[in-house]
Structure prediction request, 342 residues.
Amino acid sequence: MILGKSIRQRFDSDMQITVNGTPTEVPEGLHMARLIDQLDLGGKRVAVEVNAELVPRSLFDSHRLAAGDRVEIIQAVGGG
Amino acid sequence: MSAANDNFTVAGRSYRSRLLVGTGKYKDLDETARAIEASGAEIVTVAVRRTNIGQNAGEPNILDVLPPEKYTILPNTAGCYDVDSAVRTCRLARELLDGHSLVKLEVLGDEKTLFPDVMATLEAAKVLVADGFDVMVYTNDDPIIAKQLEEIGCCAVMPLAAPIGSGLGIRNPLNIRTIVENASVPILVDAGVGTASDAAVAMELGCDGVLMNTAIAAARDPVLMASAMRKGIEAGREAYRAGRMQARRFASASSPIEGLFF
Prediction:
């Protein structure tokens, strides 16, 4: 998966992160809020952790992703 | 006592219904919503899983049909086999639900039986209680462990009646009764109920409620079974409060002997 192509060409400075288990190329220093937008998850009821630590929604605007980050984006599903 | 003042209270909130239901295994979200409506449940469990990235962007979400404004959402830690994943799941769920701190903790020990790993469950419960969660905890039918979970600070203890999804009914009513008698927090049977009479038996044993999923979702007609379960829970609860007659070995005539004319 390569994100951010629509806004700029791919540069050597692109970095790889993992989003829900899928290796993903994103622009270096991408903010969490931008990642959520690019995945069409803006306004959706999701929660996020990076490297097994919760990242609260209130920090999405300021949280910068780093190369190698393991991002998990979760939602509620049916279950007992 | 009237039915009106027999509410079920957990984590400081009061509910009319003593039936808690899961939302898994239904045909679709429409059937889920109709079955839960018919059950009368006010507390519903959900699981926490990865969002599908890039596909099904417009797919409806379980919380669209079960709005948190109408239902108390009880996120579970199903699928967790260790303390760390259970705690992470609860923290994500709390964030997902805007700080709502009620969770159903289950730390499983074995895929075949889905019995709890009680050592890990105790450990996870300590971490979660210290982190401010209201923990309703799935455990086995061991009265000693149930009491320890209460002492840790869990707001409800939920022993299994039989393995999750088995529909085998209340396999050890004596232990369930002992757990209830020892407890000063709500005790709910979680897992193992197969049909409405099982739910009634759990309530007659003095349980404060029953949590079930497969017994409704896997019925031929889930919506009708949801209604049956609602009645089973209510019947069992009323019977418990009414105090059943003493069982006896031989007959006791219901009509008077006096006044026989032959």
Observations:
- The radius of gyration of chain A is 13 Å.
- The first helix of chain A runs from residue 32 to 38.
- Chain A touches chain B through 27 residues (CB under 8 Å).
